[in-house]
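note to self — DONT lose this again. spent like an hour looking for the file last time. sequence + predicted structure for the chain T wanted, 103 res
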Amino acid sequence: MKKTILISVLIILSSRTYSSYLDTWSNNNLCGWTTSSSTPEDIQKEIDKRQILCYGGVEVYEMPPQESDTGKNGTTFPSPDPELIEALHSKHSLGPKSKMGGY
């Protein structure tokens, strides 16, 4: 009987200690983890519990407005940098016509 009570007390104390270690973290400390490829589950639960809104790794009070990616013909994509296209063409250029009649 004494062992059962002792084990019960230890379990209760250890669970309270485990759940409270994030209590000392600031909201920005928690939001910093949201930029990670995989946010730990306990941190995500704490963010949800505190009802924090995170954007770019920091706490925000509202999400910034986003530009629309939809044009009149559907989704549009940003154009690549023209300098990168020129560099790509010059890097992969085959030069003058070969004797085979092509490039």
